[in-house]
Specification:
Blueprint lengths: L6 H11 L2 H8 L6 H11 L1 E3 L14 E3 L2 E3 L3 E3 L12 H11 L5 E2 L7 H7 L5 E4 L5 H13 L4 E5 L9 H6 L9 H8 L2 H8 L20 H11 L6 H10 L3 E7 L2 H9 L4 E4 L13 H12 L4 E5 L5 H9 L4 E4 L1 H33 L12 E3 L11
Parallel strand pairs: 4-11, 5-6, 6-7, 7-8, 8-9, 9-10, 10-11
Antiparallel strand pairs: 1-12, 2-3
The structure holds flavin mononucleotide and 2-OXO-4-methylpentanoic acid (COI).
2-OXO-4-methylpentanoic acid binds next to loops.
Amino acid sequence: MGDILTLDDLRLVAKRRLPRMVFDFIDGGAEDERTLRANREAFERRTFEPRLLSTAAERDQSVTVLGERLATPVLLAPTGLSRLAGPGGETAAAKAAQKRGTVSVISSASSVAVGEVGRSVERPQWFQLYPWGDWELTSALMDRAKAAGVTTLVLTLDVPVTGARERDYRNGMTIPVRINPRTAFDVLSHPAWALKVLTGKRITMANLVGLREGHGSSAASLAQLNLSLLNPSYSWDDVRRVRDYWAGRLVLKGIMGAADARRSVDAGADGVIVSNHGGRQADAIPASLDVLADVAAEIGTEAEILFDGGIRRGTDVVMALALGARAVLVGRPWMYGLAAGGQSGVEKMFDILSTEIDRTLALVGARSIADLDASFVRNRPGTFVSEAAR
Ligand SMILES: Cc1cc2nc3c(=O)[nH]c(=O)nc-3n(C[C@H](O)[C@H](O)[C@H](O)COP(=O)(O)O)c2cc1C
Ligand SMILES: CC(C)CC(=O)C(=O)O
């Protein structure tokens, strides 16, 4: 991995190593992928106003998030079925995060059960829950997370139904996976991946195993169960019910405006994640960066604000922090890291970002994260991204 300089390099290695259907599942977004592209363009449209002669010989990028000290302001976002990207999946990711002094958020749809990840690391992890209609299963999952030592629950609110990831439909990446000459060729032409990933333990939504009496345990039936549990009429009262049940910290994910940020605080959230699910759910909603300052203005003094969507550089991290986030999460980049080099690939991702964050702090003139505020960022109208650059 010596020639990998950037997170985009990691993406290209992942693209070579993974079957197209797996790469596109990770890389893709919903419908026309407008929101997916917008997430990047929002960073490319903004610039810094450097403050000269105001940094220090050593910069400090540590932050405190909901009472936890993190060595770097980057957490791993919850992503389902990570073992598709590489062996170890969520366990490898949690170990990498722990090694770099931060945490991962384990998805409800993770391919390693939360208890197993918890046993493989000392640092307590976070756990993500979907807005399920079935309270018995929801509370059972919270109990499992608590028993696994989870400190912070992330309740994802932007999945009333699944977004239309059209790359997946076209590639046969559906439930069940469509096996035809094209998908078979796709897998067979990536023998190293097939050997490493498909010959290991069966890839399945491990948290759901045994959750529902009498429910089958095949990968397809568990994925189907996950889908069928989604509840389009989930309400703020349901959020309050989770709040009352979960004694730890509660973070609401998918907040895209001041009004929902206010409702989150009213429902008892300790924090929110400004996120559009990496452009995988609603298309034609804004870049998450474009609503961050609004959310910060509304609830910045009452709850902690985290951010995800399109972070690919240290400059992006510093910009999001300057605009009001306490820390950021990355989704696709750690999956690319896992595909490129397992746990060391995820560590590599952290190392690239940390080095870039440190250099950016020095170049914009900040000694620590606490020095950053919106005055470091210029908002430029229009975009610098050409069609060709995409
Ligand atoms: C392959 C994949 C699976 C995901 N699975 C989940 C999930 O299970 N739960 C969830 O809340 N978000 C999920 N997300 C969204 C991420 O948590 C995060 O919001 C998003 O990836 C951030 O954008 P980024 O990929 O540009 O960093 C997933 C994202 C990807 C790419
Ligand atoms: C594995 C899926 C259930 C999760 C996913 O793709 C997502 O939430 O974006």
